Amino acid sequence: MKNIKQKKYRYEVGLYGEYLVSNWFQGSTIARKRSFDIRVPTNGFNLGSQTKLEVKTARPSKQGGWQFDFSTRLQRKANFLTLLCLDEEWKTQRIYWIDNTWAMKKHIWINEGMEAYRLV
After folding, report:
1. Is the distance from CB of 66 to CB of 109 less than 8 angstroms?
2. Nearest to 105 by CA among 120, 88, 93
3. At the top level of its lineage, which domain of life is listed (predicted)?
4. Which 3-state string (H, E, C) describes the chain?
5. Residue closest to 62 by CA, chosen among 109, 4, 100, 119
6. Closest-CA residue to 92 (of 101, 83, 100)
7. Distance between CA 58 and CA 69 in Å, rounded?
8. pLDDT (tens digit per residue) in 6-34
9. Which pLDDT score, from 0 to 100, does residue 61 have?
10. Among 17, 43, 113, 116, whose CB has the most other CB atoms within 10 angstroms?
């Protein structure tokens, strides 16, 4: 299984359909990342208002992988949450989907090999 602490992957958290995207960050610094800058478009691809998801902790999970503990919840509804895993050349390696129930949670768990992720 791949170890994200040794691989320089980039991740994007976004909402499919409403085109809500976050900044990129590297997997090697994932434990030190404290916030995601979320930008919501108001018209087409124009980026509009911005909100932040503060991360209290990003730590290895007992199930393996990483668990993110958010201090705030994203209130805006969406059909899907997407997670893109990219390599150094910005080529998409994986695309994941979960339904909008994630907005009611504060924890997202990501498996080290990026084979799957789930809510906890």
Report:
1. yes
2. 120
3. Bacteria
4. CCCCCCCCCEEEEEEECCCEEECCEEHHHHHHCCEEEEEEEEECCEEEEEEEEEEEEEEECCCCCEEEEECCCCCCCCCEEEEEEECCCCCEEEEEEEEHHHHHCCEEEECCCCCCEEEC
5. 109
6. 83
7. 6
8. 333 344 443 322 222 333 333 333 333 33
9. 52
10. 113
- Phi, psi of 102, rounded to the nearest 5 degrees: -60, -25
Q: Could you tell me the pTM of the whole model?
A: 0.25
Query: What sign results for the dihedral spanned by CA atoms 97, 103, 105, 109?
Result: positive
The one-letter amino acid at 15: L
How far, in Å, CA of 25 to CA of 37, rounded? 11
